[in-house]
Amino acid sequence: MINILFQSYGSRQIADEVIYSVLTFVHSTPDRSNFRIVIYTDNQDYFLKFLNHPMVCYRIMTSQELKTWKGQFDFIHRAKIEVIKDCFTRFDGHILYCDSDTVFIKNANDLIPLIMPEISLMHINEGFLNRPINPIFVKMGKFLRKNEFDLAGEKLKIPVNTPMWNAGVIGIHQANSFLIDEVLLLNDTMFLVYQKHVIEQLAFSYVLNKHTSLRKAANHIFHYWHNKPAYREAIDRYLYDKDESLWYNVENKLIDPTLQVNDKTDKKGVFKLLLSKFQH
Question: Which of 54, 93, 151, 165 sits a CA distance of 20 to 30 A from 135?
Fold first, then answer.
């Protein structure tokens, strides 16, 4: 069993993104017998309007839990690590974590062989930190050159040629659930020194690459982090005034959840955009 894991709290727009992502999974994966949808949220009632289905399980997050999971620096991405850790303790099976701003564009069953004890999954390799691809990589490269970390009494020097994987999708086999504690420790240790939003991503990239072989999910799951306003507008139009029958309509192909985003930013649908970016 693979738990497709989402988190959503605070913003209704994030909840709508999660709902739409789930619907694209339903649309793209006819045989869903290997999967369970798990949504960590502070607003289950809103989700039930759209995703009231036996396949979907909910875990209610309290405000105090969220505060604790974000840690002393109120680091929003730290909560992701805690959510994955908590999910492993509550739901049997492996985890395919997805950020809310993702859509499934191919059959998710194709990803099952990529979540093994020796293989983990992340969205895509964005490059190596010793290559000045963008200003963030330059800053992170300098950070790694200057610092050595003490992890439970052991010294760690992260190589500057570490690949940085996008953490919008993370697939981890149940046998590797113990690695989440290492990710959390590394995240907290680095964040004490450098409060940068990509620290959590670096922690996942380093730990999973160290213990397993990483594979990409980008050919099956599109991550639209670069153009959220346009997709949010389109998702809002898509979900407006619909109800719990939406799941069944998508499942029966009565509704195709392909979006047409704002013409001012992108005239291609989600699926075509993915194909143009990654399948060449």
Answer: 151
Q: 155-170 in b/e burial notation, b at 16+ Cβ within 10 A?
A: eeebeeebebbbbbbb
**8 Å CB contact between 105 and 274:** yes
- CATH number of residue 191's parent domain: 3.90.550.10
Residue 152 lies in a domain: no
- The residue segments making up the domain with residue 35 are 2-127+165-223
d(CA 185, CA 240): 42
pTM over 0.85: yes
Query: Tens of pLDDT along 131-152?
Result: 877 788 888 888 899 998 988 8
- Cβ partners under 8 Å of residue 54, min gap 6: none
Domain presence at residue 257: no
